[in-house]
């Protein structure tokens, strides 16, 4: 049984606020990685880790643990306590924000469920996201633990990519559920447009995963030219598959990792542009057409930002902007995919329609 339409507004607001928190989590996580702070806390303490070091003795104990890590001995030997505190603050803030996201998810979930404000399908979807969120915490620690192994000065690229992709999947799930709680009835877009709209967030997620590999392997610090890669549009096979066994090239070979990220970017941009053109021809200025054009513009801007980040050799501000903007592209692609499926919910007479959030505003008119 569906809850009354007038009761879905608070639920949608909550879901979108959660989405904002997840984007903030990704941004802080990106800053933590780019500042080399992710290995400054060497233990996973879900409860007691909420309290940071409060005394000089506590700070000395934490610093001594970090001094025992390969990252300190190989990369940061001689680092002072004051600089360590900066590293620690980034990682502690990232972990605290994760706990805040968890509380902001589960506490309102219990309230909304108790008050009968969640339909069965929405409730099951939220429980699934809760499971993914719990798994994300475990993946985060597995990722950190990989960087504490002998000889490691950073986390494993594959684990970093999985951690980022899981956060992106949770974000997409929140936005998908929120967009599905719109009150008005809406006809679905034509089948071909629906199929392409559904493909777009999948491609964005794949590109985010590949971007995680680029970040984890520092592949953005090589081949800082475009559209060629140090003089070659397609690097020689000997460079693309120089690592043995060959399968490890897809994670550890910076040339192949960057090349794959470039190719997927071109594919995503081509699909987004063709989809926008197709929607314009099929539906003129209807909601689906406007949303598709908006996504094409966002993907084009993100591609330009990615090229600038590469040419500038990955300054912190550009890398962070590129990562956060990827979340914006994912959000818009997910909203578009969900709204293109249409809505069957009908609004009760006399109940005002809930206000559209952000990109949903482009859905006015026909689907």
From TrEMBL:
It comes from Methylobacterium trifolii. Catalyzes the conversion of heme O to heme A by two successive hydroxylations of the methyl group at C8. The first hydroxylation forms heme I, the second hydroxylation results in an unstable dihydroxymethyl group, which spontaneously dehydrates, resulting in the formyl group of heme A. Keywords: Cell membrane, Heme biosynthesis, Iron, Membrane, Metal-binding, Oxidoreductase, Transmembrane, Transmembrane helix. The gene is ctaA. This is Heme A synthase. Pathway: Porphyrin-containing compound metabolism; heme A biosynthesis; heme A from heme O: step 1/1. Signal peptide: none annotated. It holds the Pfam family COX15-CtaA. Its cofactor is heme b. Interacts with CtaB.
């Amino acid at each position: 049984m569906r809850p009354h339409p007038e009761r879905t507004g608070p639920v949608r607001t909550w879901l979108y606020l959660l989405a904002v928190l997840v984007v903030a989590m990704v941004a802080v996580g990106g800053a933590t990685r780019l500042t080399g702070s992710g290995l400054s806390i060497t233990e996973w303490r879900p409860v007691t880790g909420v309290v940071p070091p409060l005394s000089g003795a506590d700070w000395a104990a934490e610093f001594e643990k970090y001094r025992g890590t390969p990252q300190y001995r190989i990369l940061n030997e001689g680092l002072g306590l004051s600089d360590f505190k900066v590293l620690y603050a980034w990682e502690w803030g990232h972990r605290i924000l994760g706990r805040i996201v968890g509380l902001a998810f589960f506490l309102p979930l219990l309230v909304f469920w108790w008050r009968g404000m969640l339909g069965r399908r929405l409730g099951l979807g939220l429980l699934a996201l809760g499971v993914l969120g719990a798994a994300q915490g475990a993946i985060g620690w597995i990722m950190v633990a990989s960087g504490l192994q002998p000889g490691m000065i950073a986390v494993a690229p594959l684990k970093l990519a999985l951690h980022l992709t899981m956060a992106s999947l949770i974000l997409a799930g929140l936005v998908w559920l929120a967009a599905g709680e719109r009150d008005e009835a809406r006809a679905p877009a034509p089948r071909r447009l629906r199929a392409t709209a559904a493909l777009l967030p999948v491609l964005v997620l794949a590109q985010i995963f590949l971007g995680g590999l680029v970040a984890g392997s520092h592949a953005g610090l090589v081949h800082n030219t475009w559209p060629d890669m140090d003089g070659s549009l397609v690097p020689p096979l000997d460079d693309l598959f120089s690592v043995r066994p060959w399968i490890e090239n897809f994670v550890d070979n910076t040339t192949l990792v960057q090349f794959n990220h470039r190719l997927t970017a071109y594919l995503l941009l081509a699909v987004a542009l063709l989809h926008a053109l197709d929607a314009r021809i099929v539906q003129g200025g209807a909601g689906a057409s406007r949303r598709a054009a908006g996504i094409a513009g966002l993907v084009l801007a993100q591609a330009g930002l990615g090229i600038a980040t590469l040419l500038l050799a990955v300054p912190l501000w550009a890398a962070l902007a590129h990562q956060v903007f990827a979340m914006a592209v994912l959000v818009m692609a997910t909203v578009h995919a969900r709204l293109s499926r249409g809505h069957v919910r009908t609004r009760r007479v006399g109940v005002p329609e809930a206000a559209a959030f952000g990109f949903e505003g482009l859905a006015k008119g026909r689907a």
